[in-house]
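A sample follows:
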Amino acid sequence: MEYRKIVERYVINGEFSKFTRKLLDLKKDDLKITLSEARRIENEVIKPYREYNAKLKDYQEILLEAIQHFYPLDNSIINNFKLIEKDLGLREKDAVKIQQKIIAKREAGFLISLATSILEKLGFDQYFIKSKGISPPYVAYKFKQPRETEELY
């Protein structure tokens, strides 16, 4: 029980830092607990964290799929996600973080696409080229090298 209390005190989001890992190893030795018994206790303590993180991942995957098919989300879909959040036993603040991250990325991609389209219509591509190898939603431009007979202005 003493080792379990120590483990519960030092676990952070289902994980142990390097410092904590060293401390737990020292405590295990002090309390004359076998390595297998210590790991069993640690796994019991972190199991709820792992299960919760798996639920967060499931929620994120469901939201990503919904956004791909139904974006922008209407009120009925938003209400369904509140039910899913409750059914999975998620804290509202955790669900909101996932929503903000996914929707912000979607919005950023849309805005970049719109800006790129406008720039191309304005002839921006006459003087600049898109840089290759940059992962979405990021776009970069660099100056085209002018030909000797060509002027930029």
In short: The chain is about 65% helix and 5% strand. The helical segments are 2-10, 18-30, 35-70, 75-88, 92-121.
